[in-house]
Design brief:
Helix content is about 15%, strand content about 60%. It is an alpha+beta fold. It has a domain of about 90 residues.
């Protein structure tokens, strides 16, 4: 069962593989200018929203059908592309985001030194230009 996606990364749960996020957060804010007219109380003026920031914790575990080391390489390559991808959590499209940071916590290695379990935190920054489809077509040569 698919529980979400970030571009080519599909979060899913099945009898063979569990690749999903454990938790996450979204930060939304807006900015205001403060005007201080002489003899009057300060007044706020909305200036603009700030780009949303999303953080997801992804657990990759060899015992649950993933290959943590290979998936870390794929995440790194995805970040190096510096492309915007759609983020879908459950049935909800969250918008388009670019991967800006990857943080890894290595939790277990096999007796042969192979990474068996890792918690990965990824940071995403909203891209509001809405040109994802056009950039994707150019990237694949359509």
């Amino acid at each position: 069962m698919i529980v979400g996606a970030y571009g080519p990364i599909v979060f899913s749960v099945s009898a063979d593989v569990v690749r999903t996020f454990r938790g996450g957060s979204r930060k939304r804010e807006t900015t205001f200018a403060v005007h201080e007219p002489i003899g009057h109380a300060p007044r706020l003026e909305p200036t603009s929203p700030v780009l949303d920031q999303v953080e997801l914790e992804i657990n990759l575990d060899q015992d649950l059908g993933t290959s943590p080391a290979l998936e870390l390489v794929a995440l790194g390559e995805l970040m190096d592309l510096q492309m915007t991808w759609p983020l879908i959590l459950g049935p909800i499209p969250m918008g388009e985001y670019v991967l800006t940071k990857i943080s890894e916590e290595w939790r277990r290695f096999t007796r042969h030194g192979v990474l068996a379990k890792v918690a990965v935190n990824i940071s995403l920054l909203q891209d509001t230009d809405g040109q994802w489809a056009e950039r994707m077509q150019r990237a694949v040569g359509l």
